[in-house]
Amino acid sequence: MHRYLKTWIALVGLLILLVSAGLPFAGAQDDPPITSGLVDIGGYSLYIDCQGEGSPTVILDSGTGSTGRAWLRVQGRIARFTRVCSYDRAGLGGSDPSPLMPRTSQVIAEELHTLLENARVPGPYVLVGHSFGGHNIRLFAHTYPDEVAGMVLVDVTHEDVMLRFGELSPAWEEEFINAWRDPEGITLEAWYATQEQLRAVRAEGPEPVFGDIPLVVLTATQEDAPLTSPTDEENEAFRQAWYDLQTDLATMSSNSQHIFAEKSGHMIQDDEPALVVEAVQWVVEQIALEDAEGS
User: Fold this and answer.
1) Which of 54, 70, 102, 137 could form a disulfide with 129 if both were Cys (CB 3.0 to 4.6 A apart)?
2) For the segment 64-102, what is each residue's pLDDT rounded down to a tens digit?
3) DSSP secondary structure string for all residues of 232-273
4) What are phi and psi of 204, to 5 degrees?
5) What pTM was estimated for this model as a whole?
6) What's the CATH architecture for 34-294?
7) What is the pLDDT of residues 184-221, one digit of tens each?
């Protein structure tokens, strides 16, 4: 009996040594990532839905007022070649409202980062943003550069669009302001603050702001309903200004593609989902090539 007791004490001592040394043993593995559900991020919860396996992990961020369901036509296809997660921003879909105000893209990016940490979603990340979601992922990439391996911007609004369009037509700017309805708690003041945050990131350099990470900019070419009734001349000026600003977005990385979605309005992920999937796949393949060259 004494001999068995000594053996048991020795095993306990060995177990303690293994734990203190950080060596793996049964029951000491990290918990797996959360695949779907509500995740607490500090007193309120956000809904996340992850599919597929592999690395890098693709993160999908929707346009203003849209939930993660905006990516229904692309998420399953991306899941065939890597892990992909969509989520509902605070106050949308299955997510709780956020106490953090104002609702700028910097605040939203920080909430997303906490969500990914608490859901144990592994990086590196390929960030995909549509419209306003592109603002969020740009500030995420600036704030957490070591965690971001690539980006896809899906008809993302440039931070200078109001300046350019306002110069072209003061009536358009007035109509835009009057039409704003604080979607998901984002006030017009918060929206303008986000534009200033994005300009500050570009201004503080260096250029290109995102170095050589793989970047794809997708630009819609089919007209959506205008806020006003512009003349043909104004309409053409708006279109050219939009295209010029989209081209500027592609200069944020030295390893970028700018692709025009010939059959799409603003919702490219609905009109040409394959184009979005192909853009993500190109970014993932570029990352794999870089990893292979670096190994």
Assistant:
1) 137
2) 999 999 999 999 999 999 999 999 999 999 999 999 999
3) HHHHHHHHHHHHHHHHHHGGG-SSEEEEEETT--S-HHHH-H
4) -80, -10
5) 0.88
6) 3-Layer(aba) Sandwich (3.40)
7) 989 999 999 999 999 999 998 788 999 999 999 999 99
